[in-house]
Amino acid sequence: MLWVKAFHLIAVICWFAALFYLPRLFVYHASSEDSISKERFKVMERKLYRGIMTPSAIATLVLGIWLVSYNPSYYMSSGWFHAKLTLVFFLFGYHHACGRLLKKFALDQNTRSHVFYRWFNEVPVIILIAVVILVIVRPF
Fold first, then answer.
1. Which letter does DSSP use for residue 34 in this model?
2. 41-69 confidence digits (pLDDT tens)
3. For residue 4, which of 67, 59, 81 has the smallest C-alpha distance?
4. What is the DSSP letter of 107?
């Protein structure tokens, strides 16, 4: 179980690194004005989303399910776990929203400013703080 937990944590860290970085790329992409920069950001965003973010999200999910399988009755009866699952659900929604925004940037159809993406970039930070507190403190 400790190996599964270690790899789950590694996957979570990789996923969050990408969740923090992709919206930051959106900030810079939305601010860029020359075509060379815009094309470079498109490549960076696509590679990050497809090569790191999505595989890390899948690994996080698979390893998380594996961890729950060791003691499902405990996890399913814990309030903190249900709250964590709710936040993870929203995190997958955020992941999907990043994918939709990536497609808009790829088609040069972005209509939002860099300020929007600066605020959008804060969402995974808030979720991370809540999830870590739920998992470590287990307040309920």
1. S
2. 999 999 999 999 999 999 999 999 999 99
3. 67
4. T
